[in-house]
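debug: dumping io for the single-chain case to check the tokenizer round-trip. Nothing else runs in this session.
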Amino acid sequence: MVRHGVDPAAGKGPERLSALELDRLVHMNDGFVRSATPRVDSLYALVQQSGFAVLLTDAQGVVLQHRVSDGDADVFAKWGLWSGVNWSEETEGTNGIGTCLAERRRVTIHREDHFMARNTGLSCMDAPIFGPEGQLLGALDVSSARSDQTQGFNQLISAMVEQTARQIEVDYFRATYQKARIIFAGDEGKEGALLAVDGDDLVVGATRLARAALGLPTEGSLRPIPAVDVLGRPKESPKGFEGAERAAVVRALSRAEGNVSAAAKALGIGRATLYRRMKRLGISEKTH
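debug: decoded output
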């Protein structure tokens, strides 16, 4: 990594934060860490018997938390697969965590693919994690120092890491927009494409996958957008005030299971008035 001035033969160990610095960093990422922890635990439960470490990092590549077996703790600590260690490309050159964050995509860095000579015994599978506003939050890493680690096994683990990263995104998005209605907005196979819609049917949040699928800004807070403008409407649907009025009447009738009196009461108008509006808007009682 010439551009970072990293020496691949450097003998010094990985860069580590102090306990106080790590505590502050974890506190700064509190919401992210709380949402991620159950998923990190579940992933580790699946891979721990094969001698893997599972790491969660921030957007700069510093490990916020780790999962390793007691028997492997000394080995992984020596490798730097531990909380508080900085795995950015600036400090470690090409590596699973740092390269994943730099390229913002899933990567597998297998043994000699690592830049630093002291890291060439590792196999690392990583996926980026994006926040509720599309921002890069960190990386999820599964690493092994086993000499018999195969590329085929790496591919299997990599898929698990990717899936878990997307689950963390969904969990954090839902936790962020607890008061909103969450709508699936993606194509088949993109379960992480979600929109948050408020009580006025305005889209107030979108995951990164939803933003990509719907052409919304890749990152940053969203200006509230009518959900119908984002998701589209049938071509024959009326627009403007008439369309809004029709939609309100249809919703009220649906909620009242076709009972016109109950629907009129919910709308705050008289039964006769509702009948007149239904006639004008072409809404039949029989369809509700």
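debug: round-trip ok. The chain has eleven helices and nine strands.
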